UniProtKB/TrEMBL annotation, chains A, B:
InterPro entries: MoaE_sf, Mopterin_biosynth_MoaE
Gene3D superfamilies found in the cross-reference section: Molybdopterin biosynthesis MoaE subunit (3.90.1170.40)
Organism: Cyberlindnera jadinii (strain ATCC 18201 / CBS 1600 / BCRC 20928 / JCM 3617 / NBRC 0987 / NRRL Y-1542) (Torula yeast)
Name assigned to this protein: Molybdopterin biosynthesis MoaE
Gene Ontology biological process: Mo-molybdopterin cofactor biosynthetic process
SUPFAM superfamilies in the cross-refs: Molybdopterin synthase subunit MoaE (SSF54690)
CDD domains: MoaE
């Protein structure tokens, strides 16, 4: 299988935002390196990882599919919205840089399906932005997941590990 | 200058907790590798980084000092408390592993003074635990910081980048 990578060409010009979809393994070190700046006192990272069990069933892997063009567009909008939402110049609060990588295809146990990194002036706006960003990505981005079990079964899920409901 | 490293020998036996103080550079990849487990769907990391400006003054670096034995003991208590506080077996919520490294001595701009990593079953208890853990470490652990400015001045601070008050 050949590896694939998709990025929004317009956003690729913005040194404060990196957003991509890939079938390759994600790399947290790359994300943290991208978001670090001398103006930021906090770097917050989130990795969403395939677990071995879901509701008592042994999971073999997760599979992610997306509408690539729409997903990148929605991700771009969400990240821009996040930067505006958590900036407060009176309190000197700011999200400096954001990195979002989402893996597509099969994601084995212990490997990451999503990595989000961001840098902020202080930790408060960083935590708030991280929580909002991840919830909003899972709600709005055109990416879907299949959960495959070791007994051979599988089920389609909303892309949300917290409040999962069956799609079909 | 020789590098130094301090760890609680009792906690060093616990494979779910790693806590240490060091004068060397911190390594996020080590922390993330330590906390990953097949049972965790989320890995959350925080790096506290030296910023180049504080209240309009150009910072040259931060310096951290501690009462090593007490600081390790307090860190150990806080991490144990965190694991109990954010476990909820009814909701299947759990903090699986926690890694806390705090740097001592001089920490230049863009380098990390603290790294906290944790793994949780879902993202909610992970975010809550991360926020609580960091706030509590900054409130209770016997570590103090000096801020040195490029004009040659310096000031002692509480070890809290969010709500700083002068100590002397």
């Amino acid at each position: 299988m050949c590896d694939n990578y998709w990025e929004d060409p317009q956003l690729a010009q913005d040194e404060s935002i990196k957003i991509f979809l890939t079938t390759k393994e994600l790399d947290l070190a790359e994300g943290v390196k991208f978001v670090k700046t001398p103006k930021a006192g906090a770097v917050i990272s989130f990795c969403g990882t395939t677990r071995d069990v879901f509701e008592g069933k042994q999971v073999s892997d997760l599979g992610y599919e997306s509408h690539h063009r729409l997903a990148l567009k929605t991700l771009g909008k969400i990240v821009q919205e996040c930067k505006t939402k958590f900036e407060n110049s009176v309190k000197d609060e700011k999200i400096h840089r954001v990195y979002v990588g989402h893996r597509l295809g099969k994601v084995p146990i212990m490997e990451d399906s999503i990595i989000v990194c961001l840098s902020s002036t202080h930790r408060q706006e960083g935590w708030n932005a991280g929580i909002w960003l991840l919830d909003t990505i899972k709600e709005r981005v055109e990416i879907w997941k299949t959960e495959r079990y070791i007994d051979g079964g599988f089920s389609w899920k909303e892309n949300d590990n917290a409040n999962v409901t069956d799609r079909v």
